[in-house]
Amino acid sequence: MIPEVVRRLDPSRPYWPSCPWGGEHPNDPREGDRHNWEVYHGMAPIESYTRDETRFLSEFGMQAAPHPHTLRRFLPPGRLWPINELWIYHYHVPEKVVPYLRDYGEPRDLLSYVFLTQLVQAEALKTAIEHCRRRKFLCGGALYWSFNAPWPNACWETVDYYGRPKMGYYFAKRAFAPVLVSPVRRGDEIEVWVVNDELRMVRGVLKVSVVDVERGEVIGEREASISVEPNSSSLVARYKLRDLGVEDPEAVVLCFRLEHDGGESRNVLLLARHRDVRFSTTSLELEVMEARREGDDAVIEVEVGSERYARLAFIDVAEDYVAAASDNFFDLLPGERRRITLRVKKPGKTVTVIAAAYNAPTPVRRMVEL
């Protein structure tokens, strides 16, 4: 009945019977759209996304706990940790999430559990989105499950019920940028792809930094001029690991930066499991450059830097205010500084801005008067 009604009332619009749909069965990767729940529900590894030959990936995702301030809004103080039946009621499924943590670390308290589950979700989304985008035109799109939460919960969303972005929000934002540099490892070789969704030629300089994260310093660099056709995905470079001077994958991270005529795109490639990479500790610097009111909100401009290589540096506020950054959970090269805009919803007269990182054990705090 529905196809006939649609055809009669709106003959100009194609009718799609279901989601997923197409091919010999509704989830056929060769035709139509497809859901990938082999990852998460089927417990397949995250890297299996890179073997998905879907024509349109219309549903995939990973659960992650929201910000601790968000959890405190709907869980009693005595039930925040460890995970209990109230977490389950708010639709967290630890038996699906916890096995993925083994590649990232060992959660020992609430804060580490939130951070690591958000990292797993972020890496899952990044891996799937970048894979689909490298396959531009073979794959027509990627829609992850899901963007924002309809109720206070601890599951798939990248923006929680109160509007706080998770780590996965920022990873997905970068992965969906119109111009994307996307490295992928194929055995002992690194391929570097650039996806250009703009309707103009993109020209720029690709910079590859080889970072010894154990010593916290850059040990090698490569640079190449590139150009990418409009509306395309192109393999722009290949590097052998030995030619990059990589001897110990657990001590080295590869950082990619494409500076082009419309901006820049950055990416990072780990060569071993996250938990096995020997990141040395670093200390961060945080400077408040400007603070102003915009209506009920506050806009705070900060600069954050790191003495050594910083993994997953982030900016937040200590108080229970909802804050969103222009970018967050990014890596910093030794001595690098980045300017970040933080928007804080309906703060009081003062806000405490904090900067922290995966390998910076002591957060930096700055009190800001508004």
CATH architecture of the largest domain: Alpha-Beta Barrel
Structural domain count: 3
CATH domain class of the largest domain: Alpha Beta
> Under CATH, the topology of the largest domain is which?
TIM Barrel
Look at the structure and give the mean pLDDT.
97
From the spread of the alpha carbons, the general shape counts as globular
Low-pLDDT segments, ≥5 res:
none
Task: Give the CA-CA distance, first to last residue.
Answer: 60 Å
Approximate helicity band: 10-25%
Number of strands: 17
Describe the structure.
- This protein is α+β, with helices and mostly antiparallel strands and 370 residues long.
- It folds into three domains: 16-175, TIM Barrel (Alpha-Beta Barrel), CATH 3.20.20; 179-276, Immunoglobulins (Immunoglobulin-like), CATH 2.60.40; 284-369, Sandwich (Immunoglobulin-like), CATH 2.60.40.10.
- It is built from six helices and 17 strands.
- The strands form five sheets. A four-stranded antiparallel beta sheet has the order 6-5-8-9, with no helix packed on it.
- Helix 5 (110-134) packs parallel to helix 6.
- The chain starts with a helix and ends with a strand.
Which tags fit this structure?
Immunoglobulin-like, 3 domains, about 35% strand, about 375 residues, 4-stranded antiparallel sheet, alpha+beta, single chain
